[in-house]
From TrEMBL:
UniProt-recorded name of the protein: ABC transporter substrate-binding protein
Keyword Cell membrane attached: no
Signal peptide residue numbers: 1-27
GO biological process: transmembrane transport
Lineage: Bacteria, Bacillati, Bacillota, Bacilli, Bacillales
Source species: Sporosarcina ureilytica
Pfam families: DctP (PF03480)
Keyword Signal annotated: yes
Keywords associated with the record: Signal
Amino acid sequence: MNKRLITLLSSALIVLLTLTACLEKEAETQSASSEGSASETSNKKFTWKYSTIYAEGSIQYERDKRFKELVEALSNGQMELELHPVGVLSDAGQLLDTVSEGTIEIGGDWPGTWSGRNTAFSLLGTQTGLTAFDYIMWIEQGGGRDVYNEIYGQYNLVYFPYNAPSNESGIRTNEPIRSLEDLKGKNIRFVGTVQERVLQKLGGNPMNVPAHELYEAVQRGVIDGLEFAGPAGDRAMNFHEVTDYVAAPGWHQTASVTGVMINKDAWETLPDHLKNVIEVASKTTMFETTFKELYMDAEASAEMAKAGIEVNFYPEEDLEKVQGIIGDVLDELAVENKDFAKVLDSQSEFMSDYAEYREMQKPWGFGVNSDLFKR
């Protein structure tokens, strides 16, 4: 090999080694920068604005307060949720848009509030057939959580259910409702697409009145009656002060679900450990508040009886009639809206899978055995 060739090869080798060293150094720098950026994101403090559709002092607002407490505690203060009741950051009817657009990051809601936009929300908020336990099982084991996020996802939102109240009190009025016939011509606050259509088929007039306006509306006779929540929720709103009668059972809402909707863009900025915090906080809130409120409902029912509130029960044939009408309405809405059909199919499939075991529990698993504890 001649001297000139050796010189050229040596020069090329030096250039190659120098280039390799430079590339390795650049890679190390980029890696360190990436790790630093990830560390900064992981340790960054997040302060989110949080509104709700509920008034301060209501049982529903207490759910939002508990969720906020858990998120802040579980995140060791890395997340701060600035919670405000309805009307401060957003009106109830505008909250979905306010969160979807990112004006605020998080909102506490009842899905049925948005059924005017998409009737599928009605089934996500309440069913006229599922129990609270059914709802929770469907969410956690029957694919329900994915269904919530599919529907809310259409509005740039991520959803976390955090409460499943049981059967509502029934319709509260100042004239007794003893049968379906008594509902004819009555202006009654009813919410939920399914519920409103059923009431219309029964001859009643569903009125959409915000929760914080209900007390005055029934007191002034703007409406003839109302449905709102379980006994404890009704008590917290002091409806016993302005109504004398309850028509039971609350066939219109055998159970419901509430939760928080989170702006999807804000959600994506969170590191994984804070996403886990929100999921755990929502599930803990579900467990704590659902059972706390169920016990409070029992206490409130006893108080209503002592206060002289008259509870009237529909005849069995009326309840059978309602069940048939509900089935017709569900079929109608499923034909009208593919999203509604998708939610209904998911819930129906879950209930079908559960049906055999559920049948095995009857009648003891649904209350007969409580007679053993009467004293």
